[in-house]
Amino acid sequence: MSLTTIQLKTPYLIFLGDVDNFVFAKTGAGIVQWRPELVKGQLRFSGNNLSLNVPDMTVQEAAKAGAKSLVLGVAPIGGQIKDHWLRVFEEALALGMDLVSGLHYRLERFPSLVAAAKTSGAQLINVRTPASSFPVGTGKKRPGKRLLMVGTDCAVGKKYTALAMTQALKEQGINATFRATGQTGIMIAGSGVPIDAVITDFVSGAAEALSPDNDPIHWDVIEGQGSILHPGYAAVSLGLLHGSQPDAFVVCHEPTRLTMEGFPDTAKPNIAQCIEYTLLNGQVTNPNIRCIGISVNTARLPEVEQLPYLSRLSQEFNLPCVDPILTGCDDLVTQLMQGSK
């Protein structure tokens, strides 16, 4: 992994504090689900019944157990750090543990944290902030293979699909690495680039750094961001597409939305449009790009409609269509391997 990407020290102690709503603790839950071997335990305040089903630990206990980072596993509304959390953070820093945050509030805003980190030599890591500057993308073809998740909208399952695909590839003996482009993905992977925080001119260069030269048969499975057809976020999606130079992509989709999430005046594009535009724009840096399937988050469909919906899509596009939770990703892996010789 390039030194220009964020690097996190593992294992983690996951901070929950007094956040007792699972919706606001999905960062921590995602880490525990996908990388349980990186988690020493959780730190929650007295009276908090929310649990990630890992051992409860104090900062001191976690440090003795070898934890290297205290990770904020929560994302409350507004992304603010509460004042009464600071004592715990200062304690962790004093013991030499890095403090890792994916919230909007930068850790350096708090003088006590800056002082504690300076004294111990620990790091304050804001995952939403790139580790360094990036060059402009070159467009030069790199050794190795790359699979990119793209979406018809934001929050349609790109990260989950990328993680599930990486797992499925490894289970079939195929060398693959998950490449994270968002804050939760970075915490799960232990490294990555917060691609939407990179200056636009350098997004494609950042994507090149994220998936550098590799073995010719190795697959980088790249977490997507936004949608190439999104009125607000298309720029980062396009730069990620050009810099990733994907050999293949999976379209991720949520079938019940009529408009873009948070953009009620913008109709959501359909799967065919997403495939068409991704192929057209992806050919700029990889003329051989291809779509290998569709990943659908069917959670909001009635249970009796979920599998029939996947079947209809598969027939319509003549491609495998899966829900990673419902069906797994083996069909996508088969399709990927059939055209990767």
TrEMBL record:
Q: Which SUPFAM superfamilies match?
A: P-loop containing nucleoside triphosphate hydrolases
Q: Where is each D-glutamate N-acetyltransferase-like N-terminal domain found?
A: 52-130
InterPro entries associated with the record: DgcN-like, DgcN-like_C, DgcN-like_N, P-loop_NTPase
The residues forming the signal peptide are none
Occurrences of domain D-glutamate N-acetyltransferase-like C-terminal (ranges): 136-333
Task: Name the chain's protein.
Answer: EBNA-1 nuclear protein
Report the source organism. Answer: Microscilla marina ATCC 23134
Its lineage opens with: Bacteria, Pseudomonadati, Bacteroidota, Cytophagia, Cytophagales
